[in-house]
Amino acid sequence: MVAQKLLKRLAQEHGTPLFVVDHAELRRNYRLFKRHLPRVQAYYAVKANADPAIIRTIYQEGGSFDVASIPEFMLVHENIKDLPAKARQDFIWDKIIYANPIKTPTALEQLNPYKPLVTYDNLEEIHKIKRHAPQAGLVLRVQVPNTGSVVELSSKFGAPAGEAVDLIAAAYEADLTVEGLSFHVGSQCTNFTNYIQALQLMANIFREAWDRGYHETKILDIGGGFPVAYDRHVKPFSRLAKMLNAEFNRLFPADMEILAEPGRFLVATAATAVSEIVGKSVRDGKLCYYINDGVYHTFSGVIFDHIQYHLKAFRSGPTQICSVFGPTCDALDTVSLAEELPEDLELGELLYSENIGAYSHASSTHFNGFPPAKVVHINQE
Ligand SMILES: *Cc1c(COP(=O)(O)O)cnc(C)c1O
Predict the structure, then answer these.
(1) Quick check: helix, strand or coil at residue 259?
(2) Does the annotation count 288 as an active-site position?
């Protein structure tokens, strides 16, 4: 948690809206992930927050990357290519997985020289890869239960488990190599059973694939979804990790290469948004604050990520349940209809919101002429 005093000072220095990225917290999250899951290499899902400084810090800690577009791939490639990593862990492929099961022919052609690791989940994609990126290694994305995850993904991606081995066979028939299997339990997955069921499914598919002679298929990619403690109801990560480690040992050989694609888990707690009150009114008896950041900007997660961020004031006072609105002229630009805030805040006073590092600034727009929040980095090494 960044100290209030520092947030205030940064806001004075840089103005608002401000997005403060704490690299000490980023490193803590990465190390926590590695400490609890020592067998797993973390491929940071860049879409959660594609800031180059974040990419560099994670790389320096020893992390790898999950990208889903050519601009993301190039961003990672350019930022890590000359960078020494403190804890370089030599692992699988080129430190990057292109984990979008659907790729354009142009993207594949651009990726091909890098001999990329790419995911797929259908027959058409095999033909496309064969034609446009024959040097790629493949990872089959399998559909798994997403029950209870905040962001559901299983309706869009993943081959049905029953078709998995045939899709592996089809890729080998096209002279491609299937390096492994992947899944995604859905983002902010607080139902740990999803992971357990997914691992059992993967173990069955691996066994059948190996029985049919596909011994090169040996990477297990457990995807993202690792939940952040936005509220008290989220069970601790250590408990999930303990379950996962037990299942890895029970279901898979010791030399299995296991990777994960954590996005939210690494960045969510590493950023704080600071905004300024620019308007105040009472509407139908309810106190309304208007701030200079909103759902078209840093609070985009309210819409796209289904996360309710809490706003805090820098001082106390008698409180009321208030509405908080963003700066644009769209009524959708509603940050919250129920925030408990001091009722005597004045125009020009600041509010802040913690744990807003993931899927926030990443989907900020310039809608209505309001630019995204300025980003400042603290505790960079
Ligand atoms: C978005 C995404 C992730 C990251 O998910 P989190 O829930 O943020 O950890 C990982 N892998 C894939 C394929 C994704 O699409």
Answers:
(1) strand
(2) no
